[in-house]
Amino acid sequence: MKTVATRTFNHHVVKEGNTSLVLNKIIDCSPISRASVASEVGLNKGTVSSLVNDLLEDHLIYESGPGVSSGGRRPVMLLFNEAAGHSIGIDIGVNYLLGILTDLSGNIVLKKEVTFKDLSYKEIEEKLFSVIDYLQVNAPSSPHGIIGIGVGVPGIVDNDGNILLAPNLNWKNLNLRGILEDRYGLPVIIENEANAGAYGEKKFGVGTECDNIVYVSAGIGIGVGLILNGELYKGSNGFSGEMGHMTIQVDGKTCRCGNKGCWELYASEQALITRAEPMGLPLADHEEFDLTNLQALAVDGNKDVIALFEQTGDYLGVGINNIINTFNPQQVIIGNRLASAKELLEGPLNNRVAKQALWFQKNDLEIKFSELSTFSTALGVAAFSIENFLQVSIQQKNVLPV
């Protein structure tokens, strides 16, 4: 009996692995013929044909018209069905909430953003429900519907998806994953927003060609996501990347985390606004100090505001220099809201790194600003949900009857 059980289990595992190989090859190389799939993944044509039939039945792939013939009958081509389902990706910021609906290739189908200020957890929760409800109700019909929800949060998230601490939101020990799964009956992934942003850039942004990436999420606070050797690095308990709280000023300002002189106190969006508030800048009576208004003043040539941005870029360079010397990355990507101020930040940032980074660390190093606008995190968590869905679908398809 044990021998039979072992054989059954091994057959299940092998089939599951082969199905993943075939599906991933079709995703990466669409359109592709059955014969090409078999040749490139190293499986015989009969096995590939059987697995392809399973994937067709599950609507994860579809057939297209004949491709180019290599001498015989023109082959039927296989394509990934990116419209087979949709993923919801949510980026919760300190003063905004961005939600997107993507297809299974990460293409954004719908989006909704709300802004707020100084709200309680319950008030933000209601806005979160409203955004998810909007995306769910307005999603195009598809065979698998909404396949999962991913949420990026600016805080410390453990490997089980519990939010241990989000200091800039005043959240502590929060099981948001359980709350959302109970409400929507869908798989939910909660991730640190900088980790998700790093993954979004690796999958869809300027990081697709690099395997060692540091993603700096520069918003109200600062978080860092790490792609090392092509994989998202989270540390032993999922807490890596809290580099916004590294000390760059001994005995400096006191941070919400309890430390002094944290990087985000000098190089973040909030730091920029805090320095601007006492300056008596020419804002209209109904306007508040925010990034958009400060950028507008800089574009209009206000020298004091331009100097503020330059100082912020310099402070960004101080922290990035420390990160470069620690991780020796191929690429540093600045994302989140401050990335929109690239023209004002880039010069002083690069000058600081050029002056202080060790010379051998600068070889082949790229410092880039995100081209995904503010979507890096939402795309990253949407991608996590998509990958989880495809893995689970394959596992369920390959479970043998008892």
From TrEMBL:
Q: What does this protein do?
A: Transcriptional repressor of xylose-utilizing enzymes.
Q: What is the lineage of its organism?
A: Bacteria, Bacillati, Bacillota, Bacilli, Bacillales
Q: Which family does it belong to?
A: Belongs to the ROK (NagC/XylR) family.
Q: Which UniProt keywords apply?
A: Carbohydrate metabolism, Xylose metabolism
Species name:
Metaplanococcus flavidus
Q: Iron-sulfur: present as a keyword of the record?
A: no
Q: Which SUPFAM superfamilies match?
A: Actin-like ATPase domain, Winged helix' DNA-binding domain
Q: What name has this protein been given in UniProt? A: ROK family protein
One Pfam family in the UniProt entry: ROK
Q: Does the keyword tRNA-binding apply?
A: no
